[in-house]
Amino acid sequence: MASSPEFLEYVLDLLRAVPNVTTSTMMGEYLLYSGGQLFGGVYDDRFLVKETPASCAAFPTAALPYDGAKPMRVVDVEDPDIVAQVVREMLPELPKPRTRRR
Questions:
Q1: For strand 37-43 and strand 46-50, is the pairing parallel, antiparallel, or unpaired?
Q2: Do β-strands 46-50 and 72-74 pair in parallel, antiparallel, or remain unpaired?
Q3: Contact criterion met (CB below 8 Å) for 65 and 89
């Protein structure tokens, strides 16, 4: 089941205090980036973020975005300030994006 554009708008509203948030679509779902760094996504109308020490402490529930994927954390908070704080704490904990060779 693909995620709805309305749910994406809701998630982007929660992320309004996170700098440089961009999205990309993949198979009907949405990947979320901050400054080019992948930190989460919208899968089946669920807002999930990658597992890091900060996200595990803030969001105790884990879920699989799709079969065969690594577990991610379910964002179950509706306070944009808390969500932004956790994402800002997560970014240094995530691996840096790889640069592609041309």
A1: antiparallel
A2: antiparallel
A3: no
